[in-house]
């Protein structure tokens, strides 16, 4: 949900140089998004039906300028598996309170296995964070 919303916001903000990608630490390849995630994004006019999961690759860290993750466990996993990646790494919720990332951000709880309302609540947090992140990117030198 976060990557698709970020793609939408980046495009709407005129950040034509920004590329948004999505990959996971579990290495799951080719799986569709959960129906609840597709439904929540559809409610907001976004399409997630073509999404297919993929695992992180070393190449991702050679080309990325910024890596956004959902949890501290993701940060630890990335640090262990890809220690030489030079791109800054941040929790998505580091942007929850404003355009400048803050330390001490919380994990974004994964709604998988929960009812549709949990996906909606998660997406509201994602929207706030991504909106601030896009503003941050627009004002970065």
Largest sheet: 2 strands, parallel
Low-confidence stretches: none
Report the total helices.
5
With strands numbered from the N-terminus, the spatial order across the biggest sheet is 1-2
List the helices and strands and how they pair.
Elements: H1 2-12, H2 35-43, H3 58-63, E1 67-69, H4 72-81, E2 89-91, H5 116-138
Parallel strand pairs: 1-2
Helix pairs in contact: 1-5, 2-5
Description:
The chain has 141 residues and is mainly alpha-helical. The chain has one domain: 3-Layer(aba) Sandwich (Rossmann fold), CATH 3.40.50. Helix content is 42%, strand content 4%. The chain is built from five helices and two strands. The chain has helices at 2-12, 35-43, 58-63, 72-81, 116-138; strands at residues 67-69, 89-91. It has a two-stranded parallel sheet. Helix 4 (72-81) links the parallel strand 1 and strand 2 (89-91). It is globular, with a radius of gyration of 15 Å. It starts with a helix and ends with a helix. The mean pLDDT is 93.
